[in-house]
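Async update (no meeting this week)

Hi team, since we skipped the sync, here's where things stand on the single-chain job. The sequence we agreed to prioritize is pasted below, unchanged from the tracker. I ran it this morning and attached the output directly underneath so nobody has to dig for it. Comments welcome in thread, and please keep replies under the output.
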Amino acid sequence: MKKIIFICLFFIISGCSVFQPEESILVQPRLVEQADLPPMNSQFINNNFEFYCEMVISCCGKVERAKLFTSSGDPVWDSLAQISLMKWKYCPAVYEGHPIKLSVRRKIKVVFDNPKIYSLAEIQLQNYQKADSVYKALLKGEDFSLLAFRCSISDTKIINGHLGNVNIKHYNDEIKNALAKLDEGEFTEPLAYGDHFVIYKRLQLNN
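Output:
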């Protein structure tokens, strides 16, 4: 497929699902990684398409509920889009120093962009101290796959951290820019991923 659907987010309004925090001391949730939206009907291909949605983001950064307020005109696409939004990952909202569940409303603009596919592996760690320790071990030459199996908190640990072929444009700018600088065999420094940290390694691309 020559082009994929790529998403841009613009925050418009938020409110906590339990209480309304003061905006001055509320840190808004930040997008970490998005998932593909379903293919769109050809009527939208040459047009800008925007829709409004509401997402309930948990204190762990997971989308617990998603609802579209703007229809594409295709009920099947709308339903699949809601499922896609449920797979997005965020840094959770923070209020008075603690992560909280928050309901946010967003305007999403759908544009088309060429994918940038890398084959990746990951080591996901609970905190920066652990991530830094693993990173220093990698710099000393320890095996990435072995460290992923021993130390990662991600489900990918059972396959040595392998993520497979990934469109790096689905990540936020910090992660995407770090990945774009990697040559095959190189790995990143620890990068914030929600409330965890991840070290990525670029592998040989699988065809």
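Quick observations from my side:
The longest helix spans residues 128-139.
The chain has two domains: 4-113, 117-203.
Reply here if anything looks off.
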